[in-house]
Amino acid sequence: MATKIRLQRGGRKGYAFYSIVIADARAPRDGKFTEKIGSYNPNTNPATVDLNFDRALYWVETGAQPTDTVRSILKDKGVYLMKHLRGGVKKGAFDEAAAQRKFDAWKDAKEKGAQVVREQEAKAKKDAMNAELAAEKKINEEIAKKVADKKAAEAAAKAEAEAAQATEENAAEAPAEEAPAEA
């Protein structure tokens, strides 16, 4: 029986998620499978992979052929590295403890790299947010300045209108006062 490690589609239209399964190569994509060893959700950022590492390693060592996508998932999780290290143990290049140390060192380095990337993304997001906030503050200050200038102009125009009206009233009262004196 030709065994494959492949993805089995689930979810709804436009929102697919996958089960990582062991199946006969002749079985339909979403049909009968031998064993489910994990799940893959590409809709999250970063994509979520839940994998039973020991079973995946067992099936890879027994000759199951993964599809391209599953192969990249397995490499990312370190299944192929562990297979390689176990091959070195069988050949006598090093012992099981050394293989485990090498794998743990690789996993730690990978996690540190991922942490650095997450920190850089968070910093970039924070810097973008601060830049956006500064631009918004600048725009708000310009708007406040325009409003203050407009209010000052309106106040000056109102004061000027009141002064002109007061002058007209004074001019109108002065001839009115002088008129009775002439009569």
How would you describe what is shown here?
The protein is α+β, with helices and mostly antiparallel strands and 183 residues long. It has a domain at 3-93: Ribosomal protein S16 (S16 Ribosomal Protein, Chain: A, 2-Layer Sandwich). Helix 1 (53-61) packs across helix 3 (79-91) and helix 3 runs antiparallel to helix 4. It contains four helices and five strands, in the order E-E-E-E-H-E-H-H-H. The mean pLDDT is 90. It has a five-stranded mixed β-sheet with strand order 4-3-2-1-5.
Itemize the secondary structure elements and their pairings.
Elements: E1 3-12, E2 15-24, E3 35-41, E4 48-51, H1 53-61, E5 65-66, H2 68-77, H3 79-91, H4 96-182
Parallel strand pairs: 1-5
Antiparallel strand pairs: 1-2, 2-3, 3-4
GO molecular function, one term: structural constituent of ribosome
Biased composition (Low complexity): 162-174
Protein name: Small ribosomal subunit protein bS16
Features:
183 residues; S16 Ribosomal Protein, Chain: A; 5 strands; alpha+beta; five-stranded mixed beta sheet; elongated; 4 helices
* C-alpha termini separation: 131 Å
Over all CA atoms, what is the radius of gyration? 39 Å
Order of helices and strands: EEEEHEHHH
Query: What spatial order of strands do you see in the largest sheet?
Result: 4-3-2-1-5
- Per DSSP E runs of 2 or more residues, the count of β-strands stands at 5
Task: Name the CATH superfamily classification of the domain at 3-93.
Answer: Ribosomal protein S16
**CATH architecture designation of the domain at 3-93:** 2-Layer Sandwich
Major sheet attributes:
5 strands, mixed
Helix/strand-derived category reads alpha+beta
Under CATH, the topology of the domain at 3-93 is which?
A: S16 Ribosomal Protein, Chain: A
Q: How many individual helices? A: 4
Helix amount, in percent? 55-70%
Query: Tell me, what is the CATH class of the domain at 3-93?
Result: Alpha Beta
Unreliable stretches covering 5 or more consecutive residues: none
Mean pLDDT: 90
Q: Assign an overall shape.
A: elongated
Report the portion of residues in β strands: 15-25%
Family: Belongs to the bacterial ribosomal protein bS16 family.
GO biological process, one term: translation
Keywords: Ribonucleoprotein, Ribosomal protein
Organism: Segatella baroniae F0067
